[in-house]
Amino acid sequence: MKRILWLLLTSLFLLSACQARPSRLTILDGNQVYSLHSSARTIADALSEAGVALGENDRILYLGAPLSPDDSLPLADHITLTIRRPVDLTLQIAGSETVTFESSALTVGEALCEAGYELHATDRLTPPAHTPLLADLTVSWQPSRELTVTVDGNEIHIRSTAPTVGQALAEAGLPLIGLDTSQPAENEPLPADGQIHITRVVESVALTQKPIPYGTRIELSADLELDQRALLQGGQMGLAIARVRTRSEDGVTVSQVSETEAVVRPPVDEVMGVGTKVVIRTAVVDGVTIEYWRAITMYATYYKPCISGTNICDDVTASGRKLTKGVVAVVYPWYLLLAGERVFVPGYGEAVIADNNGALTTAYGTHWIDLGYAETDVHDWTNRYVTVYFLTPVPANIADLYVLP
Questions:
Q1: What is the C-alpha separation between 278 and 286, in angstroms, rounded?
Q2: I need a surface site. Which of 264, 312, 373, 389 has the fewest CB within 10 A?
Q3: What pLDDT was estimated at residue 378?
Q4: What's the pLDDT score for residue 8?
């Protein structure tokens, strides 16, 4: 028991001796340097020994860390304390007031935070936040604004001090690419409600094939007999390439526009040959030997003066001839070219084209012939298709007949 008591007393003596041992103390106060040996227990006591007075906003630093006057003096042989006296900081807030206050903070950023201002990395601060606060200083501060960007179905919250929407998006890593648009537009100032919508715009161009139909062209052919037709050249479809531009916004197609069209293969017309070669033949028809240069299947009807299509009996034809057997009528275009020409109609006999039936075309096309009879003629003609033979001599205007179907 005595031994334990002796050890305890010895420890208290040694501790008391250590605490009472003075430390070498250096105090840096601006341009003033104070050096002394102090046995003070607290920072306040040590400063008092050195004759250093503290103001309300003064700051005590030891090894860069702040200390309170009530803190114990650090246990060390050599202690250096730094006194930071406050300086005036004038803060110019963009679009707002100008404020001046005292601060003994190490940097501009610390001074503002201690003064209750919330700083963000996107704020514009001149000089920057890391600038040492060594003397009176004027600081310009433009606080960043909070923005909500809607893009690709997501809402992204950003902050910016940019003057325009486009710059704010670019700074946030959300630039408009290609045909993308924004609302408000990229050259407009930041919106008052803080809402920005990006529309992703994509345009694609596709090539489409478009067939070009071919036409049919009629050409006269001296190698084919009159009224014969033959295919001289087959038709071929042409091909055009069209550019179709498709525009989509946020993945939804909003327009499709056909642009320039280029013909890469023109169509080739079908060419039908119509014969122009006149061949004179002979034949025996109804026991009569005839010489003809053309034979056409036509629908043959008959007419008389009192049933010629009017309520008045009239036996005068378009050519002035009197209507009797041997006078026939054809459609008006044929009459203009063939008036006066002789024909032979099986079952009727030889006749001359001397009248027109007033038609340009009929249900039978242009191949219609009307066989004339006098009112007193007895006949047993029944309407039917027959082969009409055009008798020689060949008319002088044969070239004009090529156009007749």
A1: 24
A2: 312
A3: 85
A4: 45
- Asked whether the beta carbons of 202 and 248 are under 8 A apart, the reply is yes
Task: Identify the pLDDT of residue 405.
Answer: 54
**pLDDT at position 14, please?**
43
Domain that holds residue 178: 145-199
Is the distance from CB of 275 to CB of 221 less than 8 angstroms? yes
Decide the pairing of beta strands 270-277 and 229-233.
antiparallel
The percent of residues above 90 in pLDDT, for the chain, comes to 60
Reported residue count of the chain is 405
Going by C-alpha positions, the residue among 356, 321, 322, 320 that lies closest to residue 338 is 356
Q: Edge-to-edge strand order for the sheet containing 238-249? A: 201-212, 238-249, 252-265
| Cα distance between residue 47 and residue 29, in whole Å | 11
Count CB neighbours of 14 within 10 A: 10
- Considering the domain boundaries, does residue 5 fall inside one? no
Contact in structure between 375 and 315 (CB atoms under 8 Å): yes
Residue numbers of the chain with a pLDDT score lower than 70? 1-21, 307-311, 362, 399-405
**CATH assignment of the domain containing 114:** 3.10.20
